[in-house]
Amino acid sequence: MTTTATATKNTVSTDTALKSVIHVRSAPGGHWVGDGFPVRTMFGYDDPQVSPFLLLDYAGPRHFPASDTPRGVGEHPHRGFETVTIVYSGEVEHRDSAGGGGKIGPGDVQWMTAGSGLVHEEMHSPAFTESGGTFEAVQLWVNLPARLKMTPPKYQTILSSDIPEIALEGDAGTLRVIAGTATNVKGPADTFTPVALWDVRLNAGKGTVLSLPDGHMAAIMVMAGSIVVNGSLVREAEFVLLDKKGEALRIDAQKDAKLLILGGEPLNEPVFGYGPFVMNTREEIIQAANDFNAGKMGRLSPK
Prior knowledge:
Layout: E1 4-5, E2 21-26, E3 31-33, E4 37-43, E5 53-64, E6 72-78, E7 81-89, E8 92-96, E9 101-104, E10 109-113, E11 118-124, H1 126-131, E12 133-143, E13 154-158, E14 165-168, E15 173-179, E16 181-182, E17 185-186, E18 195-202, E19 207-211, E20 217-224, E21 227-229, E22 232-234, E23 238-242, E24 248-253, E25 257-264, E26 272-274, E27 277-279, H2 282-293
Parallel strand pairs: 1-14
Antiparallel strand pairs: 2-23, 3-4, 4-5, 5-12, 6-11, 7-10, 7-12, 8-9, 8-11, 10-13, 14-15, 15-18, 16-17, 18-25, 19-24, 20-23, 20-25, 21-22, 21-24, 26-27
């Protein structure tokens, strides 16, 4: 059962400095990842301001008709980072060459550490394929520091029932703590560096103030509704990046809003990415490609 903290008190003092808005970015044109994930890439690994994150793909919402043909993205490699998939509607099944795998549905999260390298596939579940319906998800890539790029792969299934939910003060809404700590409540995700990942629902006409450390990256993805963040309007399918300076976010909902809040300690290391590999140097990327081609990241067994 989901842990719920009620009557949460706001721990941010009134004189705490707000993180100023750097920019608000609208969702770009979309593209398909495989045949199951119509995504809009809100940022990629060429943007140093989003460290420790590397990429945010917003998939959907899109209706898929019932089918007897599996949809998704087939076997492909990764090295040097982690993928985090949050499902809002629909279902995703994952399996990888390190033995990880599972099914996630609405409210669930999968946190896959590619580390030294693996191959995996991500498909709509058989049940969702057969029934059809609306699919909506976010996938994040989280960077690993240079010293941990070659850490062994691992996989975390984080079910909705494992994610603590906080009732925000003043009937403002709810906050689910996937990773990091919010109002003294810690999320279940096991992370290599300090990362905050919060799934938030705000009620129209209500607001909240949340704390993220000074010096940490902070951003908000708005999936539905519209909000004002530290004085700036942010609408549906928009992404707002905030300055690392300051310790607080003031969020007021103009309409009922569905948000994903990201925060984390910047790595301040070189990023060299190519396709499914993100390392620190060109030479490491070449080595990753060679290792994959030589089968050193494994292969998926036939179903």
